[in-house]
# Entry
Amino acid sequence: MMDQGERELIGVARIARPRGVHGEVIADLLTDFPDRFAPGQQVYLQLFGGEVEIATLGSIRFHQGRAILHLEGVDRIEDAERLRSAIVSVTREELVPLPADTYYDFDLVGCRVETKTGESIGTVRRVDHYGASPLLVIDGRPAGRPAELLVPFVAQICPEVDLSARRIVVDPPEGLFE
# Structure
């Protein structure tokens, strides 16, 4: 067991349920890089209730878009049941490096959004993926705008992203915020 505050953990899968009677679990992937998993890899399990444990992947295979994991020392269905809803995590340092001008969604959440002229728009609450480009879901109600704004996260509309300053500059086309 470890204190969750010791390091930043990033979820890469969520354990849905046990599979079979020999301790395997089915996990929904939260990563675009499923090849990041390998036998012998240490991961962090964020259990229901906030407890964090270190585990070692014994094996992994994929079936119908989900991961089937066997964690070393988890050999019975009762052991696996305890892991239901746990988040399989890695540290920030273990993340797959992204190409330039590409961002992890969780890095955008919490960024303040403003126009090129410095007008505050709000704060990114989440990033949705429904179509051709991601949508920034922005909380805020400046200047009588709706409480929630959707902004396409494309270079033409979001020309500047400064993660160190937690700021995204937008150049909205006419009518976007109406």
User: Anything to note?
Assistant: Residues 76 and 127 are 38 Å apart (CA to CA). Residues 105-170 form a domain with the SH3 type barrels. fold (CATH 2.30.30.240). The longest strand covers residues 52-63. DSSP finds two helices and twelve strands in the chain.
